Every structure is written in structure tokens, then in C-alpha cells.
Automatic annotation (TrEMBL):
Residues 25-75 form the DUF6922 domain. InterPro entries: DUF6922. This is DUF6922 domain-containing protein. It comes from the Bacteria. It comes from Thermophagus xiamenensis. It holds the Pfam family DUF6922.
Amino acid sequence: MPKTPINNTKDFSERSDKLPYLDLLSDHLFWDVNKKTLDIQKSKKTIVHRVLDYGLLKDWKILVHLYGIEEIAKVAMKIPDLEKKSANLIAFLSNTSIKNFACYSSKQSTPPHWNF
């Protein structure tokens, strides 16, 4: 993380220097794409999905700085294959009903081997 703290996430989301933050995200999240080619806005769904389901705590902190909780919730609601634990976390933090999430109302056609 940078040495200067980001106090207001709204101000941060409008800044143009947030591209270096994508480089700080864990490499295992984007093993199949070049992080430098990702666009903060166009790739928002991909970034949010991968950080929520597979990211580390440091990735979560970066995600919150990039988009804010409300924007993360809006994006997460549209992801049909989001993990239930990720959806529950975002629903709790954004004070949103879990029933608003696409992953809550849609089931995978092939269930996972281990259903915990």
C-alpha cells in the first residue's frame, strides 16, 4: 500500500492515479490476464468477482479503496456464480438483503463435489 493513506474513497474513485493499485493486487487473481491491460471500469465485474472469491485481505482493502462498499455491492449483486460466503459478506457490509444477489436465486447446473 502507498505511504499516504486514502481517507475518502469517493475522492479516490475519481482519481486517475488508481491504476498502480491494480499492480498491488495478488498475482494469483489474474494469472490468465495481464493486469496492465485491465481497465478499472470496464473490468470492474471481473476484478470484484476475483477479489471477493479468491483474494487476500490486502486485496480486499485495495478493492474497497478502488470502488467503495456500495459499488462493490452493486456489482456483486449481478454475479450469478459468486460464492455464498462472499455474497453474505457484501450483503452484511452494505446492509442489503441477500435475496437481491443473483447467486442467491440461481443455482449451478452441476453442483460442487463438496457442498459445505
